[in-house]
Amino acid sequence: MKIELLVDGAKVPMNDFVQKIVVNIIKAMVETLHNIDSEWKEISIHIERDELNE
Fold first, then answer.
1. Collapsing DSSP states into helix, strand and coil, what is residue 10?
2. What is the longest distance spanned by two Cα atoms in the chain?
3. Does residue 33 contact residue 43 with C-beta atoms inside 8 Å?
4. By CB neighbour count within 10 A (0-12 exposed, 13-18 middle, 19+ buried), where does 14 fall?
5. 6, 12 contact by CB (below 8 A)
6. Which of 3, 7, 8, 54 is found 20 to 30 A from 14 (Cα to Cα)?
7. The whole model's pTM is what?
8. Could you read off the pLDDT tens digit of each residue along the chain, which spans 54 residues?
9. 3-state SS class at 25
């Protein structure tokens, strides 16, 4: 599996160990959701800070 993390457009480098941890956490969370096909191809997550509630 491959993962890319961008913060404000800048790529955040991650070694293999960190990549595996992040991928496995996200994969586990998504696969517990209803109606998710176990043969998924790609997961995309976009998080945007809500300045009013921070």
1. strand
2. 38
3. no
4. middle
5. yes
6. 54
7. 0.76
8. 899 999 999 999 999 999 999 999 999 999 999 999 888 999 999 999 988 766
9. helix
